[in-house]
Each structure stands twice: as structure tokens, then as C-alpha cells.
Amino acid sequence: MAIGWYLTVSVLIFCIGLTGVLVRRNPLVILLCLELMLNAANLALVAFARMHGGEAGQIFALIVMVVAACEVTVGLGLIVAISRRGLAVDVDELRELGG
Amino acid sequence: MSAVVFFLAAIVALGGAVAVVVLRNPFYAVLALVCHLVALAALFLLLRAEFVAAAQVVVYAGAVMVLYVFVVAYVGGAPGTEELRAGPAMRIFGPLMAVALAVELSIALLGSALSGITSKGAHYILGFGTPRQIGKLFLTDYLFVFETASLLLLVAAIGAVVLARRRRGLDEPGQGMSVDDLRRLVAEPRPKDTGTMAEGAGTPS
């Protein structure tokens, strides 16, 4: 398969993830959609690594995975802390910081 | 053959992604994401990224998703608690913006002069993307990145523990044990055969 097909799939997954981040209101699902966007970027990186013939893109993809794991850990910790305090797990209810 | 595998994996990946966004119940959304990740690992394999595919399945679909499932169970992602009741502006403009971005990226992709995009990729040496090769690169050319990633993981782990710990501990009166209770409990002689493994195994002491 030509590399362009992989990049097309990556574009579509990224845009689906973006829709989820904008439309959904449960922070858990927003985190899941962020994962979708990061994975789309990973797919593009690995496809470019294949196109280029070097492994630097794959290393980059692995580091993106590490960063995603860190983001998930801290995000889920925040969600657990929110629900412990008896607040609604809903991004539109949690707007005391303004905005 | 590779075209068939590619289209199957791509369809599953895209379907999983749509399901994550559309499904109301967060638990099912997590399961859809697991399907999506496994299909993406198949795509990585087609791109000769064996180690990245293995890491995807083990780390992502394995460890991170288990964490998600536990948190969904803890927070209680009951169906119907969350509706798609984002404001009407966001409900219209969110997907609109995503479509606009997709069109823009497609134009950039199709209009790019990168000759490699229409090819099947450069020639690669034997052992491209194997754990051996990736590990060698991580410990030579990308050592600083590797160490920084480990530091980042440590910081994230500590941060998660601090965020999710119990706020009210032993020191609050009327909640749990007092310090005196704890001291008494520690000072009590423990029953026989409950201490070390050697005692439990019944070796003569």
C-alpha cells in the first residue's frame, strides 16, 4: 500500500478524535478522544518513518506513547479526585476557574 | 494480501474511533478504544514497526486500558448519566470544524510534492524496526530522550498518587483510628504463625 493511504487514515482518526473532544462532556471520554488524536499522530509518524527508511519516527512514536501514558495517569488521578469530592464529573459543571 | 489486511485494519480502526465518540456509556467507549488500538497495531506491523506494534498492544491496550476500566468502574459511568448536551453552538460547530480540518489536511496531503507519499516506502535494511534496532538506537543516539522519558514517567506516577490519595487520614478525630489505637495495635503480641514465612511454613524456631 502507498504511504498516502496510511496518512489518510491518520487524518480521519485525528478529526474523529477532535470531534469527540469538542462535543463530549464527560472528562473520561474526552481523555479517550485525546488518545485517539495521539494515536493518529503516532500512525503518521510511523508511516513517515517507513517512507524515509529510518527509525527516528518510530522512536518518536514510542516517546509519544510514554507522554500519553503520563497524561492518562495524571488525568485519571484528577477525575478520581473530582469524584471523591462529590463533584459532578462533567466539564461544563467544573468551571469555577472561569471561562 | 497486504492491501486486504490494510483495509480490514483501517476499517476496524476507523469504526473503533467513531464508536469511542458516539457511544454513550464510557465503559463501551473504552472497549471500542481497545479494538481501535489493536487494529492500529496491525497497521504498525504493515509499516514494519514491530516493536512499536508490540508496545502498542502491551502498554496501551493492556496496561493503560485496564487503568481506564478501573476508573470508569470507580467513578460509575452509568449509561444515561451523560447526554450529548453540549450547547447547540458546540454541537454544530464542533463537527463542522473537524470536517474543515479534515478537508484542509487532505488538500495538504494530496497537493504535497512529496514523491515518497505515492511510493511504498524507502528501501530498508534487514532488521528495520525490530526490538534490537530500536533498543540500540535508544541507548546510543537517543539516550537523552530515553532518560527524560523515564523521569517524566516517575513524575507522573508521583503526581497520580498525590492527586488520588485520601484527603482525610489518621489524624482526624472520629475518623478511623487514633494514634493511641494504632500504638496499642502495634504493641499487641501477634498470634503465632502469622509473622514470617518461616513461621507460616512451620519450621522449628
Provide a descriptive summary of the structure in words.
The complex is a heterodimer of chains A (99) and B (205). Chain A has helices at residues 3-23, 27-52, 56-84. With 99 residues, chain A is mainly α. Chain A has a single domain, classed as Helix Hairpins (Orthogonal Bundle). In chain A, helix 1 packs antiparallel against helix 2. The longest helix of chain A is centred in the last third of the chain and has 29 residues, at 56-84. The N and C termini of chain A lie far apart (46 Å). The mean pLDDT of chain A is 88. Chain B has 205 residues and is an all-alpha fold. Chain B is built from eight helices and no strands. In chain B, helix 1 runs antiparallel to helix 2 and helix 2 packs antiparallel against helix 3. Chain B is extended and about 80 Å long. The model of chain B has no long low-confidence stretch (mean pLDDT 82).
